[in-house]
Design a protein that fits this description.
Strand content: 15-25%
Distance between the termini: 34 Å
Radius of gyration: 23 Å
Shape: globular
Strand order of the largest sheet: 13-12-11-7-10-9-8-14-15
CATH architecture of one domain: 2-Layer Sandwich
Number of helices: 15
Helix content: 25-40%
Structural class: alpha/beta
Order of helices and strands: HHEHEHEHEHEHEHEHHHEEEEEEHHHEEH
Number of strands: 15
Length: 469
């Protein structure tokens, strides 16, 4: 009975079988365009129409004094000013050829803190604040956006950004469901946007080296892959059911819930804790699938493919807890070429990180860690050139890679299609756990075969008036 309720919540329906009817909070602000600076796109358009330059041109326009000229500067808008959004924004602030000109958050305190930081960095008041992401996206002077919002908002905001022709740095997993991920991939492709996923491990030297060793056949034919993810949540106090309270004045809770099922406000279910309820997140499984499974796929050459069959089992909290995501889980996946993958959280036989096991050796990698069957490989900072018949995309700074690709219009190291395929095993594993069935997956058509109930969980209904266009 409890798993049935989890399944309804997973699909965005009230667990008790009731229907819902709510309205969306709207902003009183009108879309506007900042006068903070001339965007790269608008400068180039104006330059194309110019006939002559004035006799005197300020040094800042020419990019002197350490400032990038408008033709080279990338104007950035940030959506999501909490923990991950703060860290990502710091990365953009360290680069002088971009400028953060707008910030958006439904929590007024988070937004105020971000504006203070950004304007303090630039010693100005040019960075504008917004509550509704659509107003920020409507600004024509913004070239790119950074999105760091809860999973249930990924698709709507990313698709809107793509429609507005913004280049996008978006967090992992790509979206809350596979259908939403497909919508992002289509929108990014249709609008020719540059996309960078926050799967920053691909820009780490040890991950790059490990994946190149595997791709160059130095461990022989891959037989098995082990992906160790975190377990949890583990805090029993916050998991237990507590009475709801009115939302704090600084939070637009209706807008925060957005397209998901309306739930009573409980403080331990928002901000950093949104990931512990399937209405807004996917637990540690989906929180980390875009990291270690992403690296596993890189070594397996599966950036544009996926598993054939997926099964899974997980342990869930009691029905009366505020948090309902699985706390311990194990997923088995079968891939082409007789490769098997185990993804697990809370199982001691699967070590945290990514391990490829082949006919002639093995490699394991994690943040700050690297081990292999061949001791010589540990001493390589990079794989020696004579061994690199297959040369993987190289980046050593994830945000820098994004900015460079905005200028070159070349794909980033983690484009939307890659993030989509990296997350699919996690999404399918979760569906397998909830249904208790082994799923057969058509990786080319991206369909679950012969299971109508499981197929419904590839997407989720939206609370009106929100729609995924």
């Amino acid at each position: 009975m409890y798993l049935k309720a989890i399944g309804r919540t997973f699909c965005g329906l009230p667990p008790d079988g009731s229907e819902f009817a709510v309205t969306m909070g709207t902003s009183n602000m009108k879309p506007s365009e900042s006068n903070a600076g001339v965007s790269r796109r608008r400068f180039l358009a104006a330059a194309g129409a110019a006939v002559a330059l004035p006799a005197f041109v300020p040094g800042r326009v020419l990019g002197l004094g350490g400032q990038a000229s408008p033709s080279q500067r990338i104007n950035i808008g940030v959506v999501g000013c909490g923990g991950q959004g703060n860290g990502n924004t710091d990365g953009f602030l360290r680069n002088t050829d971009c400028r953060v000109v707008a910030a958006c958050d439904v929590d007024a305190t988070h937004l105020a803190n971000m504006l203070q930081k950004v304007n303090g960095q630039y010693n100005s008041k040019d960075c504008r604040g917004y509550r509704d992401f659509r107003e920020l996206m409507a600004r024509k002077d913004i070239d790119a956006v950074m999105l760091a919002v809860p999973d249930h908002w990924h698709a709507l905001i990313a698709v809107e950004a793509a429609k507005q022709k913004k280049d996008i740095y978006g967090e992992k997993p790509l979206a809350r469901t596979i259908v939403e991920q497909q919508a992002i991939v289509r929108a990014v492709k249709k609008n020719r946007c540059i996309w960078q996923t926050g799967s920053w491990q691909r820009s780490g030297a040890n991950f790059h080296k490990a994946a190149e060793i595997v791709r160059n056949g130095l461990i022989g034919k891959i037989i098995r892959v082990e992906v160790g993810l975190p377990s949890g949540p583990k805090n029993p106090k916050e998991q237990r059911k507590v009475d709801s309270t009115p939302p704090p004045a600084e939070l637009d809770y209706d807008l925060w819930i957005g397209p998901s099922t309306m739930m009573p406000y409980v403080g331990s279910r928002i901000h950093n804790n949104w990931r512990w309820n399937y209405n807004t997140g996917g637990g540690q499984l989906l929180d980390w699938i875009g990291h270690h499974c992403d690296i596993a796929h890189w070594g397996m050459d599966c950036d544009n493919s996926g598993p054939l069959e997926v099964s899974g089992e997980g342990e869930f909290p009691p029905a009366d807890y505020n948090w309902n995501v699985c706390t311990r889980y194990r997923i088995e996946a079968k891939y082409p070429n007789a490769i098997t993958m185990t993804l697990a959280g809370g199982h001691h036989d699967i070590r945290a990180g990514t391990k490829w096991i082949g006919t002639d050796g093995w490699v394991w990698v994690d943040r700050g860690g690297f081990e292999s069957s061949n001791p010589d490989w540990r001493d390589f900072k990079d794989l020696p050139e004579e061994m690199r018949k297959v040369k993987l995309y190289r980046s050593r700074d994830h945000i820098r890679n994004f900015l460079d690709c905005i200028k070159s219009r070349q794909p980033t190291i983690t484009p939307a299609e890659t993030a989509h395929h990296s997350s699919i095993p996690g999404h399918l594993g979760l569906i397998a756990m909830v249904t208790g069935r082994t799923l057969r997956w058509d990786a080319e058509k991206e369909l679950i075969l012969d299971d109508a109930a499981a197929s419904q969980m590839l997407g989720r209904p939206y609370r009106g008036p929100w729609k995924l266009g």
